[in-house]
Specification:
Shape: globular
Strand order of the largest sheet: 1-2-3
Order of helices and strands: HEEHHEHH
Largest sheet: 3 strands, antiparallel
Helix content: 25-40%
Number of helices: 5
CATH architecture: 2-Layer Sandwich
Structural class: alpha+beta
CATH class: Alpha Beta
Distance between the termini: 27 Å
Number of domains: 1
């Protein structure tokens, strides 16, 4: 098969639509549940990861910013929103929420699971 946009599309080489996920985290003893959308890892994620490895950015913030989106695929956060750099008064993203988002990203991308 020759490499082309059509053959790549047929092979599932593009990320497609975001995946709807329910996330749950705890804040001050209260469970909070929200619905979000996770974009499968993509070219943008790879670029963010490479920049972080080169010392230009935060790998975790970049992964969340490139993955969490609305139902149309538009990013919800920037990396600076997650680290707190965009608004020092608001601060960085809550740790429990960060872990819930990373769990959802892992589930959508089957990270850490081997296939038998």
């Amino acid at each position: 098969m020759s490499l082309s946009l059509a053959s790549l599309s047929k092979a599932g080489a593009f990320t497609g639509a975001p995946v709807k996920k329910e996330i749950v985290w705890e804040k001050d003893g209260e469970k909070i549940t929200m619905t979000t959308y996770i974009r499968p890892l993509s070219y943008s994620s790879a670029v963010s990861d490479i920049r972080a490895m080169a010392g230009d950015g935060d790998a975790v913030a970049g992964r969340i910013a490139n993955s969490v989106c609305d139902e149309h695929g538009k990013a919800v956060f920037t990396a600076a929103d997650i680290t707190g750099e965009s608004d020092e008064e608001r601060g960085s993203l809550d740790g429990a929420l960060t872990m819930a988002l990373l769990k959802a990203i892992g589930e959508v991308n089957n990270l850490g699971k081997t296939k038998s």
